[in-house]
Amino acid sequence: MKIELLGGCTKEELEGRIQRIAAAGKLSRFPGNVFEVLESCDNYESNLKLIKRIIKMGHKSIIEHDYLVFAICDVTPIVEQTIIGNRLTSFTIKSRREVDFRNAGFYTPEFRNQDLKVHEKKEELTEKYQKHMQYLFNTYGDIEELGINKEDARFILPYCFHSNIIMGIDARGLEKMVLSFKYGRLSRIQELKELGDQFYEIIQEFVPYLASELENQEVDDHNPFAYLEESVARPEIKIVDQAKLISYTPNADDVVLESMVMYHYQCSKEEAKRILKEMEGKDLNARKTLMNNIMHKEERRELEQVSFTFQIPISLSILTHLTRHRMHALLVPEFVPMWNFDNYITPESIKAKCNDKFQEAVKKNQEVYQEFKAAGVAEEDLIYFYIGAQMCNVITTMNARNTQWVCRMRCCNKAQWQIRYIAKEMAKQVKEVAPLIGEGLGPTCMTDRYCGEGRECCGLIHALLEADQKQKEAEQEK
Asked: What residues have CB less than 8 Å from 409, skipping those under 6 apart?
């Protein structure tokens, strides 16, 4: 693992960053405009003292003006999924759909016992683990050479493979992340603890106002689910059959349309209902036209007034395709306690060409995992036996605007097949309870007659435009 702060590290850059944060802290109480405030913050040490004093008072919004970009090298998808969970983090990750990962390398945990002390058979376990992981990587390569594309071959990749990330985050988010990784429950995962430690080293040198905030913290790794687990026996993990709409805003179409009228005319809900009814009396398609206008506005705040909650079955390989949509409330199960390794998916392309090889590797991985588990290895070290095919259930709540965005991206024929199936099912179920909103969900070629894929376009847009033209000509002939 290697982490570097990209930019903002020279003496001049650091002083400039500190000046901006100090000015933000001083602005609300300083007589003068923002440029005069900036000019007054001309002493680095004074600025630093001011920032520390303000954030000690709990006013930490000022450090959101310090935006930091990190290069993160050779970390696993465990790190990926954890940092993506910080919803306001920006990130770019090397694609497993496009890049061959057979020589990416992989992470080897220290191997600890249940007390998180070094396991007495560490050397023996390490040797067996590395041999097994290389076998899985070799299987990935063999599957590719049999003609399977990278996006399906990756389903056999273990979750210890090395990934690379560029991550942007403001200093307030960074503080929260480091507290979680160094001192929270996630610190029990060795790799995340190491990540937190490396961030802290960078903070000491380049984010000096945070260093004292992060010193001498007490570890708080208690289990927030203890009461639940003590009260009822853990049920068998079952993966749901498909994405399922489990709750939603009642009468969502009405809520969206009424909110448009209410805020535009600044009228009451009752008056908005009356206006809509009057419009329908003049034009039977009025509601449909209004909704179409809303769904194609630059600002679509009316769509944010309603929400839909889904339970979604998804594989680890595809999870980032959902988590990267940040403006929704996503619940992904924690990696510990371990999930049921029997819950996995096999891509159809693999079933057709090399199913035996894939199933053999999955079975072998389960056997080695069980062997390590029986040896008393800590679950926090067993998480690297997860493979891309592993399935889990996630829950998310998104407003209609974000639902529209997800469907625009993920219903596209160019989207990965599993997330495309999920998105189409989401759109279908929303349409059942909110027909007007549902009408506007789908890929842009269907909803907007537009495709942004350029040369990589699947071709559907051309067929749709041609059909539209023929229909137009037929109507003109009438």
From this structure: 325, 415, 423
Range of the domain at 286: 250-302
Single out the residue in 260, 286, 302 at which a domain terminates.
302
Q: What is the pLDDT of residue 242?
A: 97
CA distances from 462 to 412, 439, 446, 449, 469 (A): 14, 21, 11, 9, 11
Q: What is the pLDDT of residue 98?
A: 85
User: Got the DSSP string for 422-436?
Assistant: HHHHHHHHHHHH-HH
Cβ atoms of residues 281 and 361 within 8 Å: no
Q: Specify if 215 maps to a domain.
A: no
- Please, what's the b/e burial string for 309-321 (b: 16 or more CB within 10 A of its CB; e: otherwise)? bbbbbbbbbbbbb
**How many residues would you count in the chain?**
478
By CB neighbour count within 10 A (0-12 exposed, 13-18 middle, 19+ buried), where does 338 fall?
middle
pLDDT of residue 397: 98
Q: For the stretch 371-400, what's the b/e string if a residue is b when 16 or more beta carbons lie within 10 angstroms of its beta carbon? A: ebeeeebbebbbbbbbbbbbbbbbebbbbb
**CA 383 – CA 386 distance, rounded (Å):** 6
Candidates 133, 179, 183, 191; CA nearest to 157 is 133
In the structure encoding, which two tokens stand for residue 267, read together? 């009228």
Q: How many CB atoms lie within 10 A of CB 166?
A: 14
pLDDT reported for residue 214: 93
Under 8 Å between Cβ of 380 and 189:
yes
pLDDT at 324: 85
Task: Specify whether 463 is located in the same domain as 397.
Answer: yes
The residue assigned the tokens 């990587």 is: 137
CATH number for the domain spanning 411: value is 3.30.70
Cα separation, 133 vs 384, whole angstroms? 9
- Read out DSSP for 343-354? -B---HHHHHHH
Question: Are 394 and 331 a contacting pair, CB within 8 Å?
Answer: yes
* Pair (309, 455) in one structural domain: yes
**Number of domains, the chain:** 2
Distance of alpha carbon 154 from alpha carbon 50, whole angstroms = 50
Residue with tokens 């194609």: 296
| Res 359: pLDDT | 98
Collapsed DSSP state (helix, strand, coil) of residue 398? strand
CA dist., res. 404 & res. 296, Å (int):
11
Asked if 321 and 286 sit in the same domain, the reply is: no
The answer to whether the peptide bond before residue 337 is cis (omega within 30 degrees of 0) is yes
Q: Residues of the chain whose pLDDT is less than 70?
A: none
Dihedral of the alpha carbons of 332, 313, 325, 350, in degrees to the nearest 10: 120
Helix (H) or strand (E) holding 75: strand 67-75
